[in-house]
Specification:
By secondary structure, the protein is an all-alpha fold. The protein has 6 helices and no strands. Helices cover 72% and strands 0% of the residues.
Length: 149
Amino acid sequence: MSEAPKRSRMRKARKYALDILYSADLIGCSVSEAMDTYETMSDHEIPAYTRELVEGVYAHEFLIDGYLAPCLAENWSVERMPVIDRCLARIAVLEMVYGEVAPAIAISEAVSLAKELSTESSHSFLSGVLSQVATIVPRTQTDEVPEKG
């Protein structure tokens, strides 16, 4: 399979994962409820990579947020981020830490989706935060939460 269709399929999976995570966060339901609702409303099965991303973010949310937190401005928290930006950041960090996606690709995909779906400044904000996370990830690659330094 050529690289372009694979990238397109992965991008769609990320977008679906964003939709599901956003819904779960906004409504306050579980990710399994959000996936069930999404599957029912879209009338098609959720792609395997989407399911992997959603379940991965849910399973590792505390650790993912541990990578994000030290990369945010002082007196800022992951919870204060706009929901869409928080979901995009979590997906990107999951891919960097637990997946086989190069940090540059994870960042690029998150930034691209932010340009399309979030605020005017979200793409540059996410680019900066995720670029900092990428400098932490290669050194740790464990379940240890990085220290702010």
